[in-house]
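Readers of this paper often ask what the protein records in our data store actually look like. Such a record has a labelled line for the sequence and another for the backbone structure tokens. Nothing more is needed to write down the fold, since each code stands for a local backbone conformation. The record that follows is passed on verbatim for readers who wish to inspect the format.
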Amino acid sequence: MIQYSLHCSKGHRYDAWFKNAAAFDEQQARGIVTCAVCGDGAIEKAPMAPAVARTDSEKVSLSSSHPDALKFRELLRAYRQKVTSEADYVGDRFADEARKIHFEEVEARGIYGEATRDEVAGLIEEGVEFMPLPDLPEEHN
């Protein structure tokens, strides 16, 4: 899997995952790489720094006390609640249902469910658009 930072002709920037560099090139040539924000089809790779593996075993802690952490968690929780209340739960049939919607074999609708790593890789390779649903711990009072 490879992650690219992309941008459209309207200036929107976003990240996207592809099976490999050839998969990006092939999907772009087919015209199925579009802006995640506005749907623009004029997409280019943005300059990005390579990810460099650490050579030491030092772990980096992320602080939950950051001033925006609570606000971010609440936004994620609201997003998850909206999806689960308005979309159809399809369980482990997620990949199959997402393909049917993508290839217009069934009427488009919001769905959520589970998929294996191999199923996710297959969906990405086929250009099926989806987003992971955040799983957040319950609040502790």
Summary: The chain has four helices and five strands. Strands lie at 2-8, 13-18, 43-45, 88-91, 111-113. The helical segments are 21-29, 69-86, 94-102, 117-125. The first strand starts at residue 2 and ends at 8.
